[in-house]
Amino acid sequence: MSKNNKGELPLYEVFIRSKNGLDHKHVGSLHAADAEMALMAARDVYTRRGEGVSIWVVKSTDIVASSPEDRGSFYDPADDKLYRHPTFFELPDEVGHL
Amino acid sequence: MTDKDMLFDYLLRLGDNSLILGQRLAEWCGHAPMLEEDLALTNIGLDLLGQARMFLSYAGEVEGNGRDEDRLAYFRDTKDWRNLLLLEQPNGDFAMTMARQFFFDSFQYLQFEALSNSTDERLAGIAAKSLKETTYHRRHSTDWIIRLGDGTDESHERMQRAIEALWGYLPEMFDMDAVDEAMVVDGIGADVAALRPEWDEYVNGVLTEATLTRPEDSWSVRGSREGKHSEHLGYILAEMQFLPRAYPDAKW
Amino acid sequence: MGVVDREFEKLEAAFQAKVEAEQRIEPKDWMPEKYRQTLIRQMSQHAHSEVVGMLPEGNWLTRAPSLKRKAILMAKIQDEGGHGLYLYSATETLGISRDQMFDQLHSGKAKYSSIFNYPTLNWADIGAIGWLVDGAAITNQIALCRCSYGPYARAMIRICKEESFHQRQGYEIMMTMAQGTEEQRDMAQDALNRWWWPTLMMFGPNDSNSAHSAQSMQWKIKRQSNDELRQKFVDATVPQAEFLNLRIPDDQLKWNEDRGHYDFGEIDWEEFRNVVKGNGLCNRERLQARVDAHEGGRWVREAALAHARKQEARKAAAAA
């Protein structure tokens, strides 16, 4: 990515669970030399107002991401599978909540 | 000294320690070695400031002369301050700041642990809250002692120099004077002398992991419990107290 | 026209259509190179401003007149550091590293908001910065919460949420000072006198002279024009000054019934250009402080990296 970032601390992505019962959510990134440092920094940077109960940090280079060009083959095939969504099925009201 | 006077003095010690160290950390604001660390140092500074306000407010109430946290923070001169000499020492480089922080955090951790069992409920409450904060502070400074000690030749050298420069200020933490003794007897205060072995064990373990050499106990200075400070405190106060002293009628 | 050109035009049209439809552009999506470069310039400048902005307020942190004010100020400056970090983080998704951005700042290639090149001379300046400077910043930033670039918009949403207390604490300081002793009143008026015009300059040149505006509006990385935002700020702020019983230092300031806005005097653009060029009172100090922090911290970062490598090696050796 960068030519002259020798000596720059690696980038970590930060994910925070805001409260129990919710998924971890990506909130941003930071630089740290190792995982412990990243975790401590994530706490200082991203939970200053008690935003989290659990933190994940992942080295940015360890994330495998789909690319926008994959979008067609990854997601479009789901478009015609409406039967995966509950509203696809019409049931009489008498059945009650299902 | 009455019981009340002694409790007042004891609370001042606790409050002044947190305030002076917090004030020192505030000097780093905007100048830390990396942005992430700027946020860490201000977090610790904020915790310390919060502790100071709780201790000083309580001290003022115990004294009963209408002095609140600000009256105590802004209108006492050096001889009435009770903070440890260690904490008023200048920041120096980042190694010096972290060494000072580490020695104090590892002491404070044990002291707050003891104080959270105080028979004085208010004090126990403040200590229990502060213990959580200090647990994080200690982890943060411990990490840095190890990182810098076991980092590069330069960082190792700087850290070794820092712990040697501060070593003689440490015995004062474990001193017990009449006030401390009385507080222990009443079940209010912590027996700090008794904390030394556990402190030694923790500090030795960290220094070893950091490949640092524990200095010889060849010198020590003390005096803060009687208000005898190093020259640095006067400058800290001159800066910190300037506004309320210059405009004593003003409210801020 | 070659196939490559036609392909590029198609991509660009699709990109613009997406922007028009208020869809967000994400890091790995195709984007025109100029869009990327403009964003890097704007976002890094914004990040630098947050971080340099810590300095003028930090100047009063050790002298805050009460412990409560000290705590509030420390939390606020810390927020600014955090906001700088969010913005660097968002900018890095465009393929530039934070160190590269620092290099650009330190070499003078990248700018930061000129407002931070003015000195903080009395305690009321801390109030004025919160009230005026943060007020102006928020006016700008709210518009950017709907910016077309996803990471930037998300950072701005987070920042706006956190900044709402900044302006309020500033105004509260001004209120206390304005209602305080005569000396405090003087400090408050003095602070307003010195910060008013530089704050209006924060919105940038007039629309007629703004080099980047039209394209940035089209790309929706700027949602309202400099003059619109400036007017909005003036309209909101004048009644606040009246409430404080302080005088805004502009003889031409008056309500214009027809326009439904305040008319105000002309900014001294010569001063603006001069400070942007690096000749403000504090330009040199501010930049030097950042260079010193970064260069002075190099050995610390190197040590952290060296230790991490040693740990890795030990782990590998133990596993072997």
UniProtKB/TrEMBL annotation, chain A:
Keyword Disulfide bond present in the record's keywords: the answer is no
Q: Which domain of life is it from?
A: Bacteria
Q: Please report the organism this UniProt entry assigns to the protein.
A: Sneathiella litorea
Query: What's the EC number here?
Result: 1.14.13.149
Q: Which InterPro entries match?
A: PaaB, PaaB_sf
**Protein name per Swiss-Prot or TrEMBL:** 1,2-phenylacetyl-CoA epoxidase subunit B
Which GO molecular function entries does the Swiss-Prot or TrEMBL record give?
phenylacetyl-CoA 1,2-epoxidase activity
What are the record keywords, sorted? Oxidoreductase
Q: Quick check: keyword NADP in the entry?
A: no
TrEMBL record, chain B:
Q: Which GO terms describe its cellular component?
A: cytosol
* Xref: InterPro entries: Aromatic_CoA_ox/epox (IPR052703), Ferritin-like (IPR012347), Ferritin-like_SF (IPR009078), PaaA_PaaC (IPR007814), PaaC (IPR011882)
Q: What is the protein named?
A: Phenylacetate-CoA oxygenase subunit PaaC
From what organism does this protein derive? Sneathiella litorea
Gene name, per UniProt, is: paaC
One Pfam family hit: PaaA_PaaC
Which Gene Ontology BP terms does the record give? phenylacetate catabolic process
Automatic annotation (TrEMBL), chain C:
InterPro entries reported in the protein's UniProt record: Aromatic_CoA_ox/epox (IPR052703), Ferritin-like (IPR012347), Ferritin-like_SF (IPR009078), PaaA (IPR011881), PaaA_PaaC (IPR007814)
Q: Report the domain of life of the source organism.
A: Bacteria
| GO biological processes | phenylacetate catabolic process
| Gene3D superfamilies in the record | 1.20.1260.10
UniProt entry tagged with the keyword Oxidoreductase: yes
Q: Which UniProt keywords apply?
A: Oxidoreductase
Its EC number is 1.14.13.149
**What are its GO cellular component terms?**
cytosol
One annotated GO molecular function: phenylacetyl-CoA 1,2-epoxidase activity
Q: What is this protein called?
A: 1,2-phenylacetyl-CoA epoxidase subunit A
The gene coding this protein: paaA
